[in-house]
Each structure stands twice: as C-alpha cells, then as structure tokens.
# Entry
Amino acid sequence: MVRTPSKNITLAEFMMLPETKPASEYIDGQIIQKPMPQGKHSIIQGEMVSIINLSVKPKRIARAFPELRCTFDSRSIVPDVAVFTWERIPRDENGQVANVFQAAPDWTIEILSPDQRQTKFTKNILHCLNYETHMRWLIDPEEQTVFVYIRNQQPVMLDELKDLLPVPDFASELKLTVGDLLGWLSE
# Structure
C-alpha cells in the first residue's frame, strides 16, 4: 500500500475526492493507495469471484464483488474480494444493487502483492472483524500461504496443498484447498 502524504482529512472529505486507479482507501484519517494488481493477484482475484459466485449466487445466498468500496465506521476500504450475504446487499429504490455500500462485508479476501506488508492488512482485518465481517482471508501467493481470520477465534495459517480452506457458514458448499487456489497460478 502506498501512503499518500497529506494532512488528515475527514471521511466525508475523502468521499468527495475522485476515485483513483488503483483504488485508494481511507484508514485512520489517511489516504492509502493500493498498489496496481499484478499477474498472480489478478488470477487469484478473478478465480475467487467466479468460484464463490458459482457456489452461492444461484441460490441467492450471497454474492462476491471484486474491488468494491465498502464504507463503514469511519473507514472506506476496497477489499480485493468482498462477499455480502444476499439480504445484506444494499439495494436502490428500483431493487437493483446500489452503487454505494455503507457496510462491512460478511467475508473479505485480500491478496498480498509483492510490495505489500502483512502488518497493514492485519490491522485492517482486525478492524473489520469488530464489525459485521465474519471471516477474512489473507492470501500470500509468494509464500504460498493463506491466513484465515474468523471473528472471536485464533487466526489459522494454511500452507499444505491438501488443507481445506474454511469458509463462512453461508458458503459451506464451497470446497477449496490451498492446492486448488495455488493451482490457478499454473493454468
């Protein structure tokens, strides 16, 4: 993450700024621009959104969104993958998916890029778990490791190819191993 040097601004001021490419997040009064996704990051992100949606969307259980801005509790974050249960997806007056999501996702997935540090992610993960987020994954393609953070539980580190990745209860039909996930990088 690239910290944009500036004075502290309010969340309202941040929300008035134009969107950046790659996205910027608002955390603790600071604007932090995410790095441009690279190959491994993009593959994992794209596959995760597809796999999750194939599992939960047809039954209207939940929906996965790539790079969705979620603004809640004085933060505005853009997880690599944000998953909302169907009844929590914000809708506009026409019943369509809203453009603005002012809630914490139920499940998020972050993919570490080579120049990112786990510490910054971990702080944000812990913050989200204090709100409506039930589970967060932090995938490190270089280390071939997945850290799973579940509300009110010890984090779990998975690095064996056969390890089955825990998912939230609403996605219990999704069966994915560390090996499945890392295998996408060789396809």
